[in-house]
């Protein structure tokens, strides 16, 4: 079978939600009113830490698809002032969020145990203000949220091949700036991070999903100990270390793009590493000069840059059943599934969605019960399910 990115069709039930006159949809989706609707129609569980588990009404997969959002819509009314990545979350909230992640991932692996049958992923994408709010592709909810998704590999095998020139797929690494001009610098920087549970696999092939050929060219780490390691605080600290290292690299690079020979950015996580491996590296600074020179003469190119750290970080199961962590610069695309070569086209189809809905809801309510039993929240009542 030919390996390549797949394009699948996922039916959904149209959301009965009216955008107020005079507002653009992406402006309304950032509002408290919209989040109230998300909770009342799709909310599964909430807790005192303001973490909300909900069904994805416009989902990626109708096999299993849910998200946790750090719902700060009522405590921080400014959408641009809300936490949008793990490093901005208070420690007590992140502690609970990590435990919720562990329970849900453990459930997915238990219910879908065969890597030949299903593709499993869990992760989050940056929602930083790296585009103007009115630009196409701006995230619809500017609050930190992550995804838990299971795809049927039979559906993927039967799906048509996606266009490899799809702009979103360029986010996988093969066309990216980092991989094309700073691959060795990028990898060497990550190798200096203090990681024990996360180990670099022997080859990129270990990390690649054979069916899609993705991820491509991205740094990746195997979770030694598998799902049991997700129960260890050490793992989640290392997961954060990967993100912190990425943020340092990204901020340092684009600071140099913006200003020649700029000083080290303020509040970096690993200042000694930045100084040693980046600010004294000719290849790194040469790449920054190349981008800076292009920005000066090409307005369209400069306008397309995302100057602040933009990323996708996820945990997924490879073809051998091992758990892998990877991170990508979210340079163009915004859908986390495309990191693994899955392009989702959503189609309004009430009948098709309702055929899949009972099995989907059954699984979502099962995992909700496990979270309740672990004292990670209380159930929410909606028109579609009871509170318990």
Describe this structure in words.
This protein is α+β, with helices and mostly antiparallel strands. It has one domain (6-379). The chain contains eleven helices and 13 strands. It has helices spanning 25-28, 32-42, 91-111, 153-158, 177-191, 204-207, 233-258, 271-277, 282-297, 299-304, 350-373, and strands spanning 6-12, 43-46, 51-55, 64-70, 118-125, 145-152, 160-161, 198-199, 220-223, 311-317, 323-329, 342-348, 378-379. A ten-stranded antiparallel beta sheet has the order 8-9-11-10-5-6-4-3-2-13. Strands 7-1-12 form a three-stranded mixed beta sheet. Helix 7 (233-258) packs across helix 9. The chain is globular, with a radius of gyration of 21 Å. The relative contact order is 0.19. The mean pLDDT is 89.
Q: What is the average of the pLDDT values?
A: 89
Globally, the shape reads: globular
What Rg do the Cα atoms give? 21 Å
* Domain count: 1
Q: What class would the helix/strand composition place it in?
A: alpha+beta
Walk me through the topology:
Layout: E1 6-12, H1 25-28, H2 32-42, E2 43-46, E3 51-55, E4 64-70, H3 91-111, E5 118-125, E6 145-152, H4 153-158, E7 160-161, H5 177-191, E8 198-199, H6 204-207, E9 220-223, H7 233-258, H8 271-277, H9 282-297, H10 299-304, E10 311-317, E11 323-329, E12 342-348, H11 350-373, E13 378-379
Parallel strand pairs: 1-12
Antiparallel strand pairs: 1-7, 2-3, 2-13, 3-4, 4-6, 5-6, 5-10, 8-9, 9-11, 10-11
Helix pairs in contact: 7-9
